[in-house]
Specification:
single chain; 136 residues; mainly alpha; 2 domains; 5 helices; signal
Length: 136
């Protein structure tokens, strides 16, 4: 159980790391992925296929993580979510402290957009679950 929780925590904190990625930067694999692509001298088509495979891998990891999260009691799941939220906020605060005032404004705007998208997705998932229950 301890190893599972550790793996879940690591998997759930990865999205926060995406904030360090430049706006138009690579989506999957980050700098390591770009370095690998250069070292292997991949064509654009190969790079596209590699990114697709990396995206599928990320989705699979998310699905596996979610299966284990679903098995946790509600109290532990809530505690995990609260701890992850606190860690994410602490990381955002530390990142923000490194920025110049105009960069902080852009960073804050980016965080706000992410929160809006997260809220939209949550509303959609709630709606989707309601529709599934109606269909039953």
């Amino acid at each position: 159980m301890r190893k599972t929780l550790t793996a879940v925590l690591l998997a759930l904190t990865l999205p926060s790391l995406a904030l360090a990625m430049p706006e138009g930067g690579p989506r999957h694999g980050g700098e390591h992925g770009m370095r690998l692509f250069k070292e292997l001298d991949l064509s654009k088509a190969q790079q596209r296929e590699m990114r697709q495979l990396m995206g599928e891998q990320m989705k699979n990891r998310h699905a596996i993580t979610q299966r284990y999260l679903d098995k946790l009691p509600a109290a532990e799941r809530k505690a995990l979510q609260d701890e992850l939220k606190a860690a994410r906020e602490q990381q955002h605060d530390a990142m923000r402290a490194l920025l110049e005032p105009e960069q902080q404004e852009a960073f804050d705007a980016h965080l706000k957009k992410m929160q809006e998208r997260r809220a939209e997705r949550e509303a959609f998932m709630t709606w989707k679950a309601e529709q599934a229950q109606k269909a039953e």
